[in-house]
Amino acid sequence: MAQTVFAPWEDPEEKPLIEFRNVTKRFGEFVAIDDLSLAIYSKEFFALLGPSGCGKTTMMRMLAGFEDPSEGAILLDGRDISGVPPNRRAVNMMFQSYALFPHLSVWDNIAFGLKREGQPKDKIAARVDEMLRLTRLNKFATRKPHQISGGQRQRVALARSLAKAPKLLLLDEPLGALDRKLREETQFELMDIQEKTGTTFVIVTHDQEEAMTVASRVAVMDEGRIVQVATPSVIYEAPISVYVADFIGDVNLVRGTARARPETPSVAAEAVAGPTAPEPAAAAAVAPNLAAPEQTASERSAAEAALPVDPRAPQPNALGEWLHDKVLFPILGRRKPQQKLLPAPSPQERATSDRPQTAPPRDAAQAKPAPAHADDPDALAGGGIVIDWAEGQPPVIATNGDAALDGKPVVLALRPEKVSIGKAALDMPNTLRGKVIDIAYLGNISTYHVQLADGSMIKAQTANTRRLSRRDITWEDEVWVGFSATAGVVLEE
Ligand SMILES: Nc1ncnc2c1ncn2[C@@H]1O[C@H](COP(=O)(O)OP(=O)(O)O)[C@@H](O)[C@H]1O
Ligand SMILES: [Mg+2]
């Protein structure tokens, strides 16, 4: 879609269509909008997203002219519009209730505003026909609102709002009355119509998926303020705060204390070892192949966390395990856990995938070949931080963390689809042991809720690309979850 290159907000020459300049709106003592500044550009599909009561409708009403700011200014095309009545603004607002006239036909509903303007008859007819075509309502022109479906009524309201060719169309929860499937279809229709007409749309929604689907940019609001304005993928991949990360989509929040990591990987490996992790264990977590054969029990468990396991190696049966654990372990060393649970993959399976299963990125435009965490060139890069998140556990490595956070409490925001899960240790910079507590199976995606050593939960997602997964992870299974050193976003608490 054209939106891959459409980015007027990045062009310093570009003048915004709408500008909020330090706008505050009070209702009595109550501050509904708090010193808010924002620029929206022509042809944008802009979404205001936030919980109920955060001030979205108030912003729309100020744009439409139903409310005036208590302080600050709102500019349309560079001109202050305070004092300009609603019907004199090149702005139209489509209400959630649609407010169609029940006694008028679809055709007359769409023509209503044009007739009131006193436009010539043939011009009105041409415009209404154009709007009927745009919203695919030609067949229903003579029907009354009660004779058409909810989705069609929504399109009549849209056609009526667009008939006067406003520069700016405001849509306040426009799809709220539609059921989920119709809602999704209508989202694409809205995008299509927005693109065809070139009208600037500002949509209010409390549905984050809807905002992510339709919008060129999303503003995440909280209590009368804008917390972050960015494209959907930036909001999703690089939220600036825990609030945004938590509000948009599903996220793991790993809380801990940051420690700076030196710039050179070899030194970094040593520095990983801190009060909570013995040195060789940490070294192993960074560079699996360095794990020494002579180890203490605690070192071993951490080293095992990082060692790639060959799933095709011969495995002991139950009796062999018992014998090993009870009798032979002083000679052979402790048995590596879990290997028995992983059957050797068939040749076909090996051809399809030899990697930990990971869900594809949500944004199809960003779709790449299967993410190759293990070969990730910067997976073991130096610098960044480690996060001590639980006593006795190897710290989490985040090479994208800011070393200046050293000593501070931080939160690693980690999307579930960036967390791999396996029955054997994963060859990844971060690999943690846990137990499967719950599985949410959604047809195309499974989400595993894994309890870690400190009792906290982490969600890992796999895309169910094959009908039967060879890894077949189930409730109560001991598993490994893993993620790259850049999979998460490090945020300050
Ligand atoms: N006319 C009004 N008088 C008093 N308080 C109002 C008025 N309109 C909105 N508010 C308050 O302002 C806050 C923001 O409301 P609103 O913009 O409707 O939120 P949203 O659309 O995000 O759910 C709410 O707390 C609401 O109660
Ligand atoms: Mg509202």
Automatic annotation (TrEMBL):
InterPro entries for this protein: AAA+_ATPase (IPR003593), ABC_SmlMolc_Importer (IPR050093), ABC_transporter-like_ATP-bd (IPR003439), ABC_transporter-like_CS (IPR017871), Mo/tungstate-bd_C_term_dom (IPR008995), P-loop_NTPase (IPR027417), Transp-assoc_OB_typ2 (IPR013611)
Listed SUPFAM superfamilies: MOP-like, P-loop containing nucleoside triphosphate hydrolases
Region (Disordered): 283-318, 336-381
Gene Ontology biological process terms, A to Z: putrescine transport
Biased segments, Low complexity type: 283-294, 360-372
Keywords assigned by UniProt, alphabetized: ATP-binding, Cell inner membrane, Cell membrane, Membrane, Nucleotide-binding, Translocase, Transport
Gene Ontology terms, MF aspect: ATP binding; ATP hydrolysis activity; transmembrane transporter activity
PROSITE patterns: ABC_TRANSPORTER_1, ABC_TRANSPORTER_2
Domain ABC transporter intervals: 18-248
Gene Ontology cellular-component terms listed: ATP-binding cassette (ABC) transporter complex
Name of the featured protein: ABC-type Fe3+/spermidine/putrescine transport systems, ATPase components
